[in-house]
Each structure stands twice: as C-alpha cells, then as structure tokens.
Amino acid sequence: MSEIEIRELETQFEWADAFFVIEQLRPRVNAEEYFEYLEQMTTTGYRLFGLFVDDELAAVAGVNIGVNMYYGRHLWIDELVTDSKHRSEGYGAQLMAYLEDWASERGCNKVALSSGLQREEAHRFYEEKVGMEKASYVFTKELG
C-alpha cells in the first residue's frame, strides 16, 4: 500500500521539485521565471501544496484565498496538475478534497478556478470527479 502525504511546499528546495510538475501545466514558464513569480506571489498569499506518494511528488496545487463580491471568501486555484506518470490514479481528486477541507477551515465558502478551453479532459475531471460546475467564461486581453 502506498503512503500518501499532502503538505505545503515552503522552501526553495521544495519549489524546485515542484517545478518539474508545474511545467507540465505551464510550459511557457521557464525555471527562472517560475522562481521570480513564486517570490512575488507568495508575498500576496499564494501557497503551493504537494501530494506525495511514497515520498515522490505526484501532484501540485497553487492556491490563493481571496475575497470578492462574486464569490465572497473563496479559494482560487491557480494551478492543479498531476505528474504525467501519475495521472488517472486519483491523486488530483485527493488533492482537491484536501484543498476543499483546507479552504473550509479558513472560512472559505467556495473553491474556484479557471481552465483553458482546450483542456477538455481537465473539464471532465472537474465536473465528474470533483463535482465542480461551469460557472462562467474568463476573458483576457494582452496589453502592450
């Protein structure tokens, strides 16, 4: 039986391990940018969590607690990715369940995320495996 542990990743060493999983979701972000972003993001509340299977990092989530008039106090999931060699083993759902409990313990009434239109498998996962609903479209515009 595999030993599963979920914990916050707080050190540069842990962040470095997480990069190899995060880059599967964010291939346009190189290692230097990744560390620069983390340095900035953690100052505004961003937290990084990892799910380990027998001490091997199998899934990563980056989150922020926010408050707005649309969701109230909520957990926003910026990144949720399972390492490609561990997909379809239930680790993403376990990490989501952990995050839901973590958010609830901190007074959040909702969990939300945005997922690219092309990520149809991820959309099925969110709807069928973790019970999320499609709530809106997100619109973006490049500046400069």
Structure description:
This protein has 144 residues and is of the alpha+beta class. The chain has a single domain, classed as Aminopeptidase, CATH 3.40.630.30. Helices cover 35% and strands 28% of the residues. The protein contains four helices and five strands; from the N terminus they run βααβββαβα. The chain has a five-stranded mixed sheet with strand order 1-2-3-4-5, with helices on both faces. A hairpin with a 2-residue loop joins strand 2 and strand 3. The termini are far apart. The mean pLDDT is 93. It holds the Pfam family Acetyltransf_1. It comes from Halonotius terrestris.
Query: What's the end-to-end separation, in Å?
Result: 53 Å
Q: What is the fourth-level CATH superfamily?
A: Gcn5-related N-acetyltransferase (GNAT)
Question: How large is the share of residues in beta strands?
Answer: 25-35%
Provide the number of structural domains. Answer: 1
- The CATH class label is Alpha Beta
Shape annotation: globular
In spatial order, strands of the major sheet run 1-2-3-4-5
- What structural class do you assign from the helix and strand content? alpha+beta
Number of strands: 5
In terms of quaternary structure, the protein is: single chain
Tell me which CATH architecture applies here.
3-Layer(aba) Sandwich
CATH topology: Aminopeptidase
Mean pLDDT: 93
**How much helix, percentage-wise, in residues?**
25-40%
Order of helices and strands: EHHEEEHEH
Q: What's the helix count?
A: 4
Rounded to an integer in angstroms, the radius of gyration calculated over CA atoms is 15 Å
